[in-house]
Amino acid sequence: MPIFTPKQVREGMNIRDIVNRDNINLQNCESEPIHIPGCIQEHGFLLGVHSTALQITYCSANTERFTGHTPEAMLGKGFEEVFSSAAAAQLQAFVNNPRYDQSQPLVFTINHIQYNTQPHLSGDVIVLEFEPFPDGSLALPDLYRQTQKLVTYLQNAENLRQLSHSIAAETRTITGYDRVMIYRFDKDYNGEVFAESKRDDLLPLLGHNYPHTDIPAQARELYLKNMLRMIADVDYTPVPILTRATDATHASLDLSYSVLRSVSPIHIEYLKNMGVKATLTISLIQDGRLWGMIACHHYSPLNIPHFTRLSALLQGYFFTSQIKVRELADQYEQSKEINDCMQQLLEALSADENFILHQHHNPDLYTCINAGGIAIQHGNHLYTGGLVPDEAAIQQLATWLKIHAPQGRYSTDRLIEAYPAAQHLSHAAAGIIYHELSAQADSYVIWFRPEMVKAINWAGNPSKGIVMDSNGARLSPRKSFELWKEEVKNQSMEWTRPERDAAAQLAYNLQKQVYLLRIRQEEERYRRLTIQLQAANAELENFNWISAHDLKEPLRKIQVFASRTFYGETSLEVYKDSLLRIQNSAHRIQLLLDSMLSFADMRSSGEVRDTISVQQLLQQTIDKFTGQIAETNATIILPENLPALYVIPRQAEQLFTHLISNALKFRKPAVAPQLVIDYRQNPAPPHKANGSTALTYHTFSFADNGTGFDNRFTETIFRIFQILNRTQDYTNVGIGLAICKKIMDNHEGFITASSCEGEGSVFKVYFPA
Predict the structure, then answer these.
(1) pLDDT, tens digit, for every residue of 479-533?
(2) Rounded CA separation 39/36 (Å)
(3) Cα gap 695→685, rounded to integer Å
């Protein structure tokens, strides 16, 4: 693009321009210094005046055309010298009023022509931009009519998009542009034509998308500073800004807030490629971020008056005020739906201390926030519901999240961008929300969203937004804006604010339950330790009793019969009887000591559990008593289809051996023993030994027709070395049922007994299901 260079400037040796010629050799569009081009558009002129001395330090090269004064005649002069004292007073009033109202321009009259002047400060320089009124008059807009229309649009619009179309149409009516678009950015600053009003003969651009490279970062920064930007004619010749050559401090002038600022050559070429001749853009800003723009295009040169621009800017202000209101209204409706669902979940969660165990399959856990599935890691279990990756993939993802989400939370709708392994998970996990529930226990919750394949209508190939020209010398924008469709994969629907908030709320409540469960588990552990300690103390007391009584009795007998043998005259029969009694007493001592060691070993056993067939184990145990069964003509009834149990195999065998042995041993005289073994799966009985928390139990009952016992002793018989019927049977030391109880303690179950003397007994063992 040629730069305006009048003859007197070329010949003048005491002034120079500040044109930034590096723009021509750019290798990266993002680095273009568009705020300091050093030149302006030609439909007005510019002066830079020192803010204290009111001395002209900058001027555009076209001042003679508008004022009759050459740049050489102006630079270095006082403002009052070149213009009138009245004009200088106007400028001084601006300097003295830092809260100058930009909506009210300074109107200077030069050579009987009125100029709209938008002054602003750039460092210590007052930048004055003079534009003659295009229609030759200072026509004020009908603000009442415009405001009335805006209120009507507000009342009639059901949603933001409908309001957008109304604003686009009204802006086109006010300004006269051929096409007016509401342009909305996504989070990556790719733009979409959200609403449009156009001439009937023009092709629609509604729904077309433009890549973020079309409006680079530094351009977006300027749109945040200066909400209104106009190009009256893309074919303008840039006018250089001049300063005195001897003034080395004035290397450039920041024109961020300038209306006349010259436009990037790349952007001018871009507009020409689109066939656009004039533009007006109005920034739409939300929370300090560029939400979008009102973009006006004209297909011939168009320069609209200052107050018409302000009327269009008012449309932008009004629309901006409604963006948040409308978006919040949409969010409120979504939040209301989510909260109704969440309320039921939270009530269920607070009512059930094992909510994760019992409710992990509840679809509301993920459908409430419009997720496709959920995974909750708690303890050693991974609970899932809905559409989720396989368990191994979830665990790998959780390991990655633990490292890359140090705050314990993470959300994305494009998981693959941060986690490449997600390329195989998109069917279920293109997007996720992650919350850590407990770092110590590696507990977490992850919501999953599947891939949402969608087609994007780009206005031209987005990968060719800015390219090097054919000679590789300079950047050039794309020339084609024909519809270019792209299929986007590995991306889920974006998580909304209400959805993220609901997930955080639910995660917080799950976290509370995890902590409460951990506290209860610790309490339960301490309670069990207390029970174990009490049992150990009881066993120690029994051992003390044995030492004090049971062991003393056979020792005393040994002493008595030994004395009878060694002292006094005894017959051979008495001598033999004494030796036999000594032998029996010693054998009993041996039995007691062996039983004590066996019981102690049972308490400290660290054997591993395994799944066994109870049917097979019971049959093998019964086979060991074949001789005794035949000798007593006993009958043992064993049911079929008994379940498998996860137990310590050797201890389970001991348990069944003792119970069958007792049924055969304690039989009534002249009555054939009968033992009926039965199985049921029952709920927890009222009395639960060891504080077991199981809800159901595998219950095996052993009912015999033996001698029975007084039902008062149903607890006593399970204590070590407690014998109800003391006989001369030296092999019965009262250890069998105590071992049975210890075995059931080791399996978090329990054993009970019920009986009646002379009518048999029923022993029941309960294994947690």
Answers:
(1) 656 655 556 678 888 898 888 988 998 888 888 877 777 777 778 788 878 877 7
(2) 8
(3) 9
Residue 575 has phi, psi (to 5 degrees) of -65, -45
Tokens linked to 586: 């010693």
DSSP states of 592-661: HHHHHHHHHHHHT--PPPEEEEHHHHHHHHHHTTHHHHHHHT-EEE--SSPPEEEE-HHHHHHHHHHHHH
Query: Across the strands, what pairs with 279?
Result: 231, 297
Torsion of CA 80, 86, 90, 92, to 10 degrees: 50
Side chain identity, residue 493: M
Query: Which residues are CB-neighbours of 151 under 8 A, at least 6 positions away?
Result: none
For tokens 């290798």, name the residue: 27
CA distances from 18 to 37, 207, 241, 289 (A): 8, 41, 6, 32
Ordered by where they begin, the domains of the chain are 7-132 (3.30.450.20), 143-237+247-330 (3.30.450.40), 352-453+489-523 (3.30.450.270), 607-769 (3.30.565.10)
Dist. CA 357–CA 386, nearest whole Å: 16
pLDDT bracket for residue 201 (50, 70, 90): very high
pLDDT tens-digit series, residues 431-479: 999 999 887 767 899 999 998 866 566 666 665 555 555 555 455 565 6
DSSP per residue over 256-309, as a string?
A: TT-SSBPPPHHHHHHHHHHT--EEEEEEEEETTEEEEEEEEEESS-----HHHH
Structure tokens at 152: 């009507």
